[in-house]
Hints:
Blueprint: H1 3-16, E1 19-20, H2 21-30, H3 37-49, E2 53-59, E3 65-71, H4 73-100, H5 107-117, E4 126-129, H6 136-148, E5 153-157, E6 170-174, E7 187-192, H7 201-211, E8 212-223, H8 234-242, H9 253-260, E9 264-272, E10 275-283
Parallel strand pairs: 4-5, 4-7, 5-6, 7-8
Antiparallel strand pairs: 1-3, 2-3, 8-10, 9-10
Helix pairs in contact: 1-4, 2-3
Amino acid sequence: MKKHDLKIAILRLLMLKEMHGYEIGRYLTTVGQSGQLSYIYQILSEMRKDGLIKSLWLKGALGAKRKVYSLDTRGWQELQNTLRELVNSVHEFYMDYLARLPPEKWLLKWERMITNIVPELSLLNLVFVTVNPQIKTYQFALEYYSAKIKGDIYLVTQKSKLLTLNLNNVVVLNGDHTNIPLKKNFADAIIAFDPPQIEILQDSIAEFCRVVKEDGVAALGYPNLEEQDDPLTIGAYIERIQYGLENRVFIDEGSIRSTFEKYFKTVTSVKTADFTFFIGKNKIES
């Protein structure tokens, strides 16, 4: 087993409970990931120096002290990074699967959803907001809009995360949900796929209201995470990881709607695939 894979296996064990070195070696053997105990202790020492794990001497049942290992902060972060990489890979394969389906199975549903949000595509100053432009769904949306709109599309994101897009009419701006570097009343429509964190929801919708025209449209997408209680299904679990919601408090539909109603006279919602879009129209001028 490669050293990195062995370290991840050890971190996964310590995620369940703290263990001493011999116990870690025994568990690894039972799942077919055996290695010499001396090598495992060497790896444990490296992981402790790197801040992935920490150790503590505890007195055993027979009185002798044993060194017990547990996860440290960097170890939790490494596990989360590994999990997100795996989930992203699954999501990539899933999007490839969708892309191979006949248009009526998926792309036409996507098109109907988009036209439900923004019926008149050809005459728009359109703004996209996303903190995670690598997700294929968002790239499909950009490609779809790029082909439909004659003018420019403004993509507000963190530039450091942007993948290369071969779309001539996409203008990339550095910003996020609460910081859209465009003037007041600029956009005919603004659409955000990434749900903002609950603590910035109101500031995000207020910023959308500032940027959109008086008769414009502001739409905010939330994944349909219907399952709130553990144990989750594997689909709900993957969605939470995919959208960075695993450690966040979920906001209910009524709260999102009521926040929109502070800034827009008309608020509706559209469900499509694994997303619900909340749509605000006819903004309330402050």
